[in-house]
Amino acid sequence: MSERELLQQPVSELLEQRPYLRDFFVALQLGMPGPGQCPAAFFAGLQAAQLAELGLDHAALAAQFVDFARHMEQFQHGGDQPVRKVTLLGGRDKQGRPEDVQLEFAPGEVVCVVGPTGSGKSRLLADIECMAQGDTPSGRRILLDDRPPDEAARLSGEQRLVAQLSQNMNFVMDLSVREFLTLHAESRLVDDSQAVVEQIFATAVELAGEPFTAETPVTALSGGQSRALMIADTACLSASPIVLIDEIENAGVDRRRALELLVKKEKIVLMATHDPLLALSGDRRLVIAGGGIRQVLVTSERERANRRALEALDRRLLAVREALRRGETIDFDF
Q: What is the b/e burial string over 15-31, where b = at least 16 CB atoms within 10 angstroms of the residue's CB?
């Protein structure tokens, strides 16, 4: 919508298309224009002294209104362009030895990060999260579509390039699951937020090992339920094109289903894991040792076949776990 259209269209029509514009008038405490009045006419009718108290004149007020509308529109639609490629340029390991790699990641790809505890897996994820430009201990650099990320967007708290699911997750707000999801959906300015909330909740219950209700306080969720909720929230609501996951296997969720959900949304997924099922579910594995990327393995057909055998074993273990939860005895022959 052009600047002229924003200023000349009746407010009732603007609010129907862009309900968030109401916040502009409320925040400045200028009152609301009449339903048939356009913003330009409303602004022209305000007293200069009234605007001076806000440090504005009529032209500045109109310019701020247009800037606000455009900023919110960009926020609603998740930025100008999707990320088509992420490139990682190697830095150095903990001993200062060069890390001679250049890796590219594409939407829909799952890349697993493996290595011993303390090897540097979390450092790698952190480099991607902050879009490192040689300014972290590893010296790595991250490019988006062959270019360094915009510095303002990189350092802005509003940038949504990366969503991260960490090992430690605690809620500190006094809200129910439904209230939390509604708050997040409304803050993202999504259309039909209640339908989105119901979708996220149903997905989270599907992922969690134990059911919960939408009225459950978020502070009462178990670790697995919390992770399931945030995985569903990331998959269904987050506009971030890159998702970083740190050891999802510790969450007690349906990890295969979680991965399917994230990949289906055409996100670039990097996942640190010790779980063989997850590691073999990725397209590639980055082997980390001593703080550096030592090897890049492409998942072979043989490994995919082995993963299917492991899945059968995993389903059996899951059945035993469920039997234990029901208080049953475990008695079967291998």
A: beebeebeebbeebebe
> pTM (2 decimals)?
0.70
Cβ(118)–Cβ(291) below 8 Å? no
Closest alpha carbon to 43 in 8, 67, 16: 8
> What is the model's pLDDT at position 248?
72
Using CA atoms, how far apart are residues 204 and 197, in angstroms rounded to an integer? Answer: 11
Helix axes 193-207, 177-187, angle to 10 degrees: 130
CA angle 262, 143, 261 (to 5 degrees): 0
Q: Over the stretch 133-165, which tens digit does the pLDDT of each residue have?
A: 999 999 999 999 999 988 776 766 555 678 887
Whether 56 and 64 have beta carbons less than 8 Å apart is answered as: yes
What are phi and psi for residue 319, nearest 5 degrees? -65, -40
131: helix, strand or coil: coil
> What whole-number distance in Å separates Cα of residue 88 and Cα of residue 165?
20
